[in-house]
Amino acid sequence: MPETTAFDPLGLDPVLLKAVYAMGYEAPTPIQREAIPAILKGRDVIGTAQTGSGKTAAFVLPILQRLMKQPTGRTRALILSPTRELAAQTETAFRSFGKGTRIRGQSVYGGVGMGPQEHALRGGVDVVIATPGRLLDHMGRRNVDFRGLQVLVLDEADRMLDMGFLPDVRRIIAALPRERQTLLFSATMEPEIEALSRSIMKDAVRISVSPPHRPPAKIRHEVYPVPQHLKTALLAELLGREDMMSVLVFVRTKRRADRVARQLNQAGFDVARIHGDRSQSQRDSALAGFRSGQHQVLVATDVAARGLDVEGITHVVNYDVPPVPTDYIHRVGRTARAEAEGEAITFVTQEDEGELRGIEKALGRTIPRVTLPDFNYNAPPPPRVHGHEGGRRPQAMRRPSDRGRRRFR
Description:
With 409 residues, the protein is of the alpha/beta class. It contains 14 helices and 13 strands. The protein has helices at 14-22, 30-40, 55-68, 84-97, 115-122, 132-140, 157-162, 166-174, 191-200, 231-239, 254-266, 280-292, 325-332, 353-363; strands at residues 45-48, 77-80, 105-108, 127-130, 151-155, 181-186, 205-208, 219-225, 247-250, 271-274, 297-300, 315-318, 342-348. Helix 13 links the parallel strand 12 (315-318) and strand 13. Helix 3 (55-68) crosses helix 4.
């Protein structure tokens, strides 16, 4: 560890600085630089910043510093997350930044057995990182004791509201000590979140270090006009490009995610899928394979639009146009993270023009339209085969043998 680092002025303990340096961080991001000192002073904080800007470390590091100076054995911090994936990633961050401390964190979410979670909660784990529904299950069984709670974090608060968690969040907050530090982090700040913050926070510091309703500046945006029945064929054509190394594809429904993943696999690509009907072990396996490069493509519903932190995603493809502009911002924010470059591609049918105009208004500019010169946009829909959704694959997807299965590691 060097004698001085760019993190030194933030006032972090040397043990934490050592972990930060060991993880390869050279300088704090703007949200970290502004939020960490305020949190260390005990202030309530509302932090808004673009996706991929380092919000997790902005609250994990000061919480660790606060807790490492106290006796262990009680739950003293609670982090509420909208998705299982985000909860698991936050737990990983606590373990990484907390090396050299005795602070223990436990993620609590559905899709897995309650036994190990119950054991950890009853043992007084220091930090609980939970999705609201599963946490309420444990609270109903009296598995968790929040009487010693000091810090509450609402992570991706706007997403929790989008997913209908507001009643659950209010029930959880009502069971917590009134004297606590409350931290609210989000990529977008809707009126409902403003109202929630006023009801649960005291004299909060507002920190907004970058336009929260804009995606990272290093994303290149493109729109591909295409008929609905040719979307998968066009996607297969694009995936054959050498630069499409790690591609996250967003679709609207779970059924469509299964269909698109199956068709791309048949076309010779390594594909995994994530959606709400997949078991937690299946979701973990798909994400691990995508992270490692085993899978070139991950097809997902909006369950992956928040909390999915995968380094090196080169492209985000909106197979279906998201219904609201903020969903677009969160989806495409999965690429160009940590100052990297990325590309966002959106497939648009004639029926999608209204939604697209809303996205362009949010971005403050028109997104260029792109067509492939050798792609047959006039191909008819494939004949439907009884018992097989979508019929035969379009000719464009039946790839010659020299363009077969590709692996990216």
